[in-house]
Write a structure and sequence with these properties.
The complex is a heteropentamer, with 2 copies of chain A, 1 copy of chain B and 2 copies of chain C. Helix content of chain A is about 30%, strand content about 30%. Chain A is α/β, with parallel strands linked by helices. In chain A, strand 4 and strand 5 form a beta hairpin. The longest helix of chain B is centred in the middle third of the chain and has 33 residues. Chain C is built from 9 helices and no strands. Classes of the chains: A alpha/beta, B mainly alpha, C mainly alpha. The interface between A and B is medium-sized, with 22 and 25 residues. The complex binds protoporphyrin IX containing FE, adenosine-5'-triphosphate (2 copies) and magnesium ion (MG) (2 copies). One adenosine-5'-triphosphate (ATP) sits at the interface of chains E and A.
Chain lengths: ~220, ~260, ~220, ~220, ~220
């Protein structure tokens, strides 16, 4: 089977700065991969490259079977990126925001309810986004990603701002992703927590990748 | 790094200079003074070629933008050509406007008249001033190229519509009052030659400046692969910072990239 | 979802936000009325002049208010990094464009209706033939909404969005200003035959830029 | 640091940002020029009104460009939650006000200088007595910068900043529009004696709003 | 001695929502207090009240000897709040931003350099803020707070986004705050990490405070 993500000597320039300076990465169907690395190592950049938001300067990238040099857009319907911000509208409620982004990929209201439940957002469903606290927003961002039922879920520091409950909920999300053979790439500084769940760890150092297997032979 | 071979570019510089000198000689002394306007009319030999070259420059911008957008011909070369040519176009449009105003003062008694051609020229000027403003907005080179290519085409599509609307505005209601079209009717032989020679000289000037401007843009972007290798080496060694190799500070990814 | 359903989803979202925040109604609309008044004020309420230049003033005012409406339409997309979310949404860019442009157009129509009242009232203008006037206004509105939405997205991810859109948009929509003004003049004078060529021009502009928008919105939405 | 040092710190910061981003120069200034051109054209220049209404058009244009300049001045304070940082900075609000208003005023002066050239050129306006014209412009600029900075901060923390400031500001500065227009008319006609009362009005307005600004900036900067 | 922070049945409304519904809190000179609590408990609100950014609806609050009902502004010169965003200008460099906010309280360039060093921002001093990664921004935000040499330092989830090095640096900052008898109130979900350094823990639950001593009798 083709890998879900395949990068070869990927170089990505932000301005003229090589934020990614040669990254190789293979992620296979159903894997949960931890993306580690210091501040400024290039994790966010890598995730945005995978989402098709940033073009490569050189190297190869294919995600979900699409060559990103040719098309950076089509695969987005099957993918969700949870970044630092929710991407939601302040004047819409939690549920309305979720519904908008879920309907956009043709999913139903059930997915919305499931995601609300999974992140413990039920009581906040009718609160406007503008009134949410930082951690509540983070939960909503994850819920939006989840409700779109993506084949590939990209999470950028999803733990930041979550309380203990929220982290439990996130762990559950990751576990059920494993069960549903959904692929996850997750950048985080909560290494210990994520290592317990991830199949594999990839560390970025100054824009380059260094891989090491974590759990031997799970998949 | 240049459009022309460096030696050729230098030679072109000298040829252009010579052509401009000859143009000046002809314009000032060779051609006879105009029967009606006297010496003021000599501005024509600059004004009209400037206008023509401005059109040419905007045409080249549109063409280069199209070539950038067309996947098979996509190359940063076209982006730089488009930008350089638009700058020259704005320059030559400004020259047309200024020379026209200088000319209008003695001939019409005013700097400016609300004639259709004048107004379209001014709108054209602002269309591309906006385009240049867009080029100055810091983003990554690729993003800028894409945005600007599309903006150039949008502007170009607009030019004929502006032209029609402005012309109709004048003609549907009343006739143009000041612009005297009979001017060019009986144009003297030497005058015609001087005008055509002016067009040639300005074309040379345009090509020469385009080449220079292109070279500057290429240098500013400084993205030849050798330099990139150095940057990558620095980055991998953990030494490079996003600011270290940035002479102009004109290139930056959009806000939000790293949040 | 097909193109129009996606457009409806987007337009619905934008109009719902407007229904909650009422920015167009409570801020842009009064702005338009104030501008109209100020113009009247600055141009010396020497009645005769004012009445003759009323159509021009009206359309200049509409354009300025449209600048604000478009600014607002994209300020909504800039909060919380929504523009990235739109990019990732999987919606067809053409649908996105149609949806956003439709929402802007709806807001502009309301705006124009009220401002027309303002012009009739302040400037003592009578309307000779309503049909061409309405047609011209609609064509002009579509054109402005389309170009505005297009330039809006071009600047959406940029920090200078607020100032960039006006300077790009105004020269491009200058034909709309001229065409709509002339068409209005003709309609006010009750000379509809003079209005038709202008309505034609406005329609061509509108159709052209809706088409360009549907094609170009996708590439412009991408940040790189 | 005393009040003026603080003001200088703030103004220096704003002008340094402008020197880097060149938004006023590259975006607001062309905006002003195109507005001038389009307005004049939409008002049908052949009818001989243009020259008479030139001062009014000029000042309407300056006000519109000022709206953009102020929008920009506070868009800088809204990114990354800078407004909270300003609140917490410990700078004297009066100093903050003076600094920001000074930076805006400097930008407006440049803008007006260029636009004046535009008016002289496009509208064939000769300037009778330069002194009153310059004085009136300076007083008007200070007034606009002061009120703009004041209303800007009022809206700074809000999401509707972009649309709110114009609708609040325009009515307030309408005396400036009136006064400056009249003063210009007098200056152009070479009747400086007619200009002085208006310059007086503009100066009172300016002084008043600088004073109000120094007092009110603090409370307005606080979010309720 | 007066406590540095003194809250009595503090109620703070956000819109009509009582984000703080009766909080009592005393923080004494030189204490490092951990503010714990789930998402939406009111931690950010509390810190903003202490900074004088939000008014109380009822109850008493005094900070650094100022009664906030009377004056919410004067004490800010002696206080720093590090929130989720840096509050810096994208077009200015790291050093320029730091200098601006440091000169505003009359501190010198030495403080700037010290803060740059403490957070490991030296190599980034001349990079514009707009080009920083999330973690680099967080470091800058902390550095700004530090360089102002405040008597009371309020930190809102300072760990979010920091890598391992950054967290070490932050720990050092907290430790040296202890040494310099500087008072710190810190909201965080990294409970274990902070507990090791804090003198005391205050937990907010749905806008109410429940205090518990942590290290017995250190001060
Ligand atoms: C600011 C004022 C003026 C502007 C913006 C302006 C603009 C232009 C432009 C754009 C063209 C090129 C048109 C074309 O080839 O299609 C042109 C051509 C020309 N202009 Fe001007 N002009 C101005 C003033 C004048 C004045 C004062 C005169 C002399 C009375 C003049 C005489 C001409 C002539 C003779 C041509 C070439 C004839 C032709 O190709 O039609 N212009 N001008
Ligand atoms: N503008 C607002 N209007 C109404 N309610 C609000 C507003 N902002 C926040 N709230 C509510 O106030 C409560 C407290 O918010 P606060 O941001 O203080 O929480 P927090 O403890 O910092 O949470 P987190 O750990 O998620 O950052 C939350 O329940 C939130 O929904
Ligand atoms: N717009 C930009 N222009 C130039 N360089 C940038 C830009 N944005 C980020 N960088 C640089 O690119 C590098 C990688 O940034 P990125 O955001 O990917 O890091 P990261 O691994 O996500 O870090 P963090 O853990 O802090 O979030 C950083 O060194 C940063 O300074
Ligand atoms: Mg990151
Ligand atoms: Mg919080």
């Amino acid at each position: 089977m083709h890998p879900v993500v395949r990068l070869r000597s990927a170089v990505c320039l932000l301005g003229r700065f090589p934020a990614l300076a040669g990254v190789d990465l293979d992620v296979h169907q159903g894997e949960v991969v931890l993306l580690a690395g210091g501040n400024g190592a290039g994790k966010t950049t890598l995730l945005r490259v995978l989402a098709g938001l940033l073009p490569l300067h050189s190297g190869e990238a294919s995600v979900l079977g699409h060559d990103l040099a040719v098309d950076r857009r089509t695969h987005r319907r099957r993918l969700a990126l949870v970044g630092h911000e929710t991407g939601c509208y302040d004047d819409l409620t939690v549920r309305e925001n979720l519904t908008f982004f879920t309907r956009a990929v043709g999913r139903s209201a059930d997915d919305v309810d499931a995601a609300l439940g999974a992140l413990g957002l039920g009581p906040l469903a009718d609160v406007r986004h503008g009134r949410l606290s930082a951690g509540q927003r983070r939960r909503l961002a994850i819920a939006v990603g989840l409700a779109r039922a993506p084949d590939l879920l990209l999470l950028d520091e999803p733990h930041a701002g979550l309380d203990a409950d929220g982290r439990e909920a996130l762990d559950d999300v990751l576990r059920s992703a494993c069960d549903q053979a959904r692929t996850v790439v997750l950048a985080s500084h909560e290494l210990d927590r994520v290592r317990a769940l991830a199949d594999r760890e990839v560390t970025l150092v100054s824009g380059r990748s260094t891989t090491a297997p974590l759990k031997a032979g799970v998949r | 790094m240049t459009l022309l071979k460096p030696a050729f570019g230098r030679a072109l510089g000298w040829v252009t200079l010579a052509a401009l000198v000859v143009l000046a000689l002809f314009g000032l002394w060779g051609a006879p003074p105009d029967a009606v306007q006297g010496d003021a009319q000599r501005l024509m030999y600059l004004h009209v070629p400037a206008a023509w070259i401005a059109y040419l420059a905007f045409g080249i911008t549109a063409l280069a933008s199209g070539l950038w957008l067309w996947p098979r011909t996509r190359s940063m070369v076209w982006d730089r050509v488009a930008g350089a040519s638009a700058e020259l176009g704005v320059l030559f449009t400004a020259l047309t406007l200024v020379l026209g105003a200088l000319w209008g003062r003695p001939v019409w008694g005013v700097w400016w008249a609300w004639d259709a051609r004048l107004v379209t020229t001014a709108v054209l000027f602002f269309l591309y001033v906006g385009y240049l403003a867009l080029r100055q907005v810091p983003t990554s080179p690729e993003a800028r190229a894409r945005r600007c290519a599309i903006a150039a085409l949008i502007a170009f599509v607009d030019v004929p519509i502006v032209h029609f609307s402005v012309t109709w505005w004048r003609t549907l209601h009343q006739q143009a009052t000041v612009f005297d079209p009979s001017l060019k009717a009986n144009i003297h032989g030497v005058m015609a030659f001087t005008l055509w020679f002016g067009a040639l000289a300005f074309t040379l000037l345009y090509v020469y400046l385009l080449d220079r401007r292109y070279r500057l843009a290429a240098l500013e972007e400084g993205r030849d692969d050798r330099e990139l290798d150095v940057a990558i080496a620095e980055r991998v060694a953990g030494a490079g910072t996003p600011e270290a190799r940035r002479p102009s500070g004109s290139v930056e990814a959009p806000a939000g990239v790293s949040r | 979802m097909n193109l129009f359903q996606e457009a409806a989803l987007v337009a619905g979202k934008d109009l719902r936000i407007e229904a909650r925040a009422r920015v167009t109604l409570q801020q842009v609309l009064p702005f338009g009325l104030i501008v109209l008044l100020l113009f009247a004020f600055a141009l010396d309420p020497d009645r005769g002049v004012l009445r003759r230049v009323a159509p021009g003033l009206f359309w200049v005012t509409v354009l300025l208010a449209a600048l604000l409406a478009i600014s607002r339409a994209y300020s909504v997309e800039s909060e919380n990094g929504a523009i990235d979310a739109l990019r990732m949404s999987g919606l067809d860019p053409a649908g996105l464009f149609l949806g956003k442009a439709a929402a802007v157009a709806v807001e502009l129509v309301v705006l124009e209706a009220v401002l027309t009242g303002g012009v009739v009232l302040f400037f003592d203008v009578g309307i000779g033939s309503l049909g061409p006037l309405v047609l011209a206004s609609i064509a002009a509105t579509v054109g402005v909404a389309a170009t505005g939405t297009l330039y809006g997205v071009l600047a959406a991810g940029l920090r200078v969005r607020e100032t960039l859109v006006p300077v790009l948009l105004l020269p491009v929509v200058s034909p709309v200003l001229l065409g709509a003004t002339r068409a209005w003049e003709a309609a006010i004078d009750g000379a509809p035959s003079d209005a038709w060529p202008w309505i034609g021009l406005l329609s061509i502009f509108a159709v052209l830029y809706v088409a360009v928008g549907m094609l170009a919105f996708g590439p412009l939405l991408e940040e790189a």
